[in-house]
Specification:
The protein is α+β, with helices and mostly antiparallel strands and 105 residues long. The chain has six helices and three strands.
């Protein structure tokens, strides 16, 4: 984009977000906010994204059993997340057991 070139607001905003490296952060927030649709109902009822830092998703889980289950499915989850984002925003997932974040069954 040249200095005096007239461009649409959409193009200018995308360039601004890319130049300031905000695009990946926004995509990360979208993944966190859309967790149930992305992971599915069963997984989302037993897990909750905490944050994304340095391409690592920190995921709170209901129990050690869920941590083990999701660890086995880690590659599948990473592929789904990155596919949804349209680029690699997640390289790893770390699981933290946090019983208090989930309703008792």
């Amino acid at each position: 984009m040249k200095k005096n070139e007239i461009v649409s607001f959409e193009v200018a905003l995308k360039k601004f977000l890319k130049d300031n490296k905000w695009s990946k952060k926004i995509k990360g927030y979208q993944i966190i906010n859309n967790w149930e649709n992305l992971a599915g109902k069963e997984i989302s009822q037993s897990s909750q994204p905490i944050k994304i830092q340095d391409k690592c998703l920190f995921l709170a889980v209901k129990s050690n059993a869920w941590a083990n289950e999701l660890n086995l499915r880690k590659g599948e989850l990473i592929r789904k997340i990155n596919q949804e984002a349209g680029e690699e925003i997640i390289y790893n997932i770390l699981f933290k057991v946090r019983h208090s974040l989930f309703k008792n069954d």
